[in-house]
Amino acid sequence: MSDTNINSTESPSNATNGTCGKVSVSVNIPIIFMTIGILSNSVALVILVKAYKRFRQKWRACFLLFASGLVFTDCLGHLINGAITIGVYAQEKDWKIIDPSGYLCPFLGTCMVFFGLSALFLGSVMAIERCLGITQPFLHATKMTNRCAKFILGSTWLFALCIALLPNLYFGEYTIQCTQTWCFIKTQNVTFGRESGILLLFSSLGLTALGISLLCNTLSAVALVRARVKNKPHRKGKSHHVEMLVQLMTIMCVSCICWGPFLVTVATIGSLIAGPKAINSLLLGVRMAAWNQILDPWVYILLRKAVLKKICKIIQLCMGKQDIQLHRWDCSSLQRTIKTAAMENSLTASKKQPQISRRTESQ
Fold it and tell me: Most buried in the list 34, 98, 139, 353, measured by CB within 10 Å?
């Protein structure tokens, strides 16, 4: 979502009838937002790529791959949606000049739905991956390979693209919204059927992704707290788990705050129970959802291991503790887990090999 600067002045009656007043906003505003978004996501992407090259363990690489995919998606969304938005403002929102063929509006609507759903889906995929890695380390070590992670990442993008293409296949419709600054699924004068169905599908998928993230992150946090309380030996050295969980919890909170109002408003419009102020609420939701792509990369820039250690040290200093010995941020226990799982696989394979050879000789 890229229209972070809509400043609607229409009245509720005009919004209900699908007409809005002129919006006078400088083109410098979308340029500033697009620049900040691209720079933030680029910095976060560089950090994640370096970390991906440094940590080659499967449990670490999968999370970094999903996180890199999320940041790359946000960066590309800022670039494409922001460039179109700047063009709209530069031409004073005259779509006849901007889009004489009529293809730009469906393209912009498709991009907004695709990049929005991709960010929500990837957030839930990362939460599932971490929940599996914390609660089922053996299963995660054997099944969650780098190849599997790449397949999941590609499938997530493909699924989001299929949903975004539905209005172009006459399951709904992409229309210019009343402020004349962006395109989205038809939200004015919605009728029961395909028009309301695509709105409900979009909102339900987004809310489901947020719900999955909330559930999985909660389970992961409970597992880490229980391991800390019981002080299990095989649960020590989980600092990387804590780091990634802090990042996921922050991303989940940002997504809920930024996307929640917009998804709820879309669901209300799709349910045909929207009041006269629904369009105004939708515009406010668009502005809030746009901040999600700007705030996501700062989670990986600020909530890194080195930064968290410094914050912890500062807090302890403020509490009057002078002799501070922070625990080492290592992954020795997880390495042992991966090695144990690999040894079990090799033993299983060695046991199966004589059986296969005997069957071959008998045949």
Answer: 34
Low-confidence ranges of the chain (pLDDT < 50): 2-19, 21-23, 233-237, 323-324, 326-342, 344, 356, 360, 363
pLDDT of residue 343: 52
Q: Residue 315 domain-assigned?
A: yes
* Number of domains making up the chain: 1
pLDDT at 211: 94
Model confidence over 74-117: pLDDT tens digits?
Answer: 999 989 998 998 888 888 777 888 888 888 999 999 999 999 99
Give me the pLDDT at residue 25, please.
59
Q: Determine the length of the chain.
A: 363
Q: What is the CATH number of the domain that holds 290?
A: 1.20.1070.10
How much is the pLDDT for 34? 87
| Secondary structure of the chain in HEC code, one letter for each residue | CCCCCCCCCCCHHHHHCCCCCCCCCCCHHHHHHHHHHHHHHHHHHHHHHHHHHHCCCHHHHHHHHHHHHHHHHHHHHHHHHHHHHHHHHHCCCCHHHHCCCCCHHHHHHHHHHHHHHHHHHHHHHHHHHHHHHHHCHHHHHHHCCHHHHHHHHHHHHHHHHHHHHHHHHCCCCEEECCCCCCEEECCCCCCCCHHHHHHHHHHHHHHHHHHHHHHHHHHHHHHHHHHHHHCCHHHCCCHHHHHHHHHHHHHHHHHHHHHHHHHHHHHHHHCCCCCCCHHHHHHHHHHHHHHHHHHHHHHHHHCCHHHHHHHHHHHHHHCCCCCCCCCCCCCHHHHHHHHHHHHHHHHHHHHHHHHHHHHHHHC
Q: Does the residue 337 lie in any domain?
A: no
> 308 is in which domain, residue-wise?
12-330
| 45 within some domain | yes
Domain for residue 166, yes or no? yes
